[in-house]
Amino acid sequence: MGTAKPKVVVLGSSFAGLTTARFIRQHAGDRVDLVVVDRNPYLTFVPNIQMEVLAGHDPLETMLLDTPAIHVKDGNTFLNAEVVALDPDARRVQIVPSDRPGSAVESLAYDYVVIALGNRLAYDRIAGFGEHGDAVSSGFYGNKLRRRLAAYRGGPIAIGSARFHQGLQGKPDWLPVGLAACEGPPLELGLAMAHWLESHRLGDAHKITLFTPAQMIAEDAGEAIVTSFLQMAAKKGFGYLNNTVDVTRLHAEGIEFESGASLEAEIKIVIPDWVPHQFLVELPITDERGFVLTDRRMRNPTHPEILAVGDAAALTVPKLGSLGHQQAEIAARQIAIAVGALGHDDAGPEYHPEILCFGDIGGHQGFYIHSDTWYGGTTSVFKMGHAPYAMKLAFKEMYFRTGGKPPAFGVPATHLLMDHFPGE
């Protein structure tokens, strides 16, 4: 009678979870029994929703990737369920099947677990958002904004972030404190919205104000890049409001901020706070907010059988997909080493974050940011033109075609091509 294989459970099958599961299977082969749990049987390609919305398309028709078949092909077990509890000492996870309301709680044992559930986007903590707010973070909200734009009366537009509450317990000295969860989207959406206004003969950038709770919008991109962006935005006519502290209320005529400032706005697009799932809060593996504490190998210091990748991890600041991709490879190798499929020399580099971002700015053009200056590095690249737009489209196609498993040469090739691209 054979020895049972180590059981690996990956919680989440969106960007970080799907990629981690695929890398685990690649590196560990058939040495593990791999189970993936997600409340949805699909992945929503959130980064490109705004492109579909501003083109007048339904993102639910083009931005969903069916994931169960990918896991079946890899020999994984996919469970369509919501994670409701985790017991680190008992090494068990509680789940509730999510395909039918009223399902009973079930329990899963694990030898290793990867927490890749992302976070809650706390729109429910912004007064008035349900009636007056907009976003491009899901198919539902994308289509809601499409309807809002169809009825647009020509008034002011405000785009920006609510305050992000980062955990400070266990935060390493090298990791800065971010006041916004991710501010690439406001930059991208602001530029693309200005083009949408112009192409529909409804105005231009003068109708749009960008706002941030921080001293500087998109601070994680680095001061040099943001200064260049703000100079360009000012020339185009964008309004800019910083140090708002937080969003307190949305109403029909605009936005009110904790700083005491306010903006008139017909359309109010807000990036909310990123909040950990409630079952993680107050666990011994998380910080005071509920983000999972890890070392640079993405393993929890007190429970090394628990790993975290993507937005659920405390080290993921800002909440950016490219950081989750880097972490997925690291975590997968750690598990493969633990089960004897790889040697310790195969661990690869530790986690060293850098900002890698492609943005759509309308008119088949985009921007490219590659920077690590926020973390103390020296890389600072900001390019605009048609090539970044093409790369943004190409990444989505590649991600879908590979089933969430980009080739190993993808990121290095991107740096090689785009860092030396002359711009336009």
UniProtKB/TrEMBL annotation:
Any one Pfam family match given in the protein's UniProt record, by short name: Pyr_redox_2
Gene Ontology molecular function, alphabetical: oxidoreductase activity
Domain FAD/NAD(P)-binding residues, every copy: 7-327
SUPFAM superfamilies found in the cross-reference section: FAD/NAD(P)-binding domain
InterPro entries: FAD/NAD-bd_sf (IPR036188), FAD/NAD-binding_dom (IPR023753), SQRD (IPR052541)
UniProt-listed PANTHER family: FAD-DEPENDENT PYRIDINE NUCLEOTIDE-DISULPHIDE OXIDOREDUCTASE, PTHR43755
Protein's recorded name: Pyridine nucleotide-disulfide oxidoreductase
Protein source organism: Mycobacterium botniense
Organismal lineage: Bacteria, Bacillati, Actinomycetota, Actinomycetes, Mycobacteriales
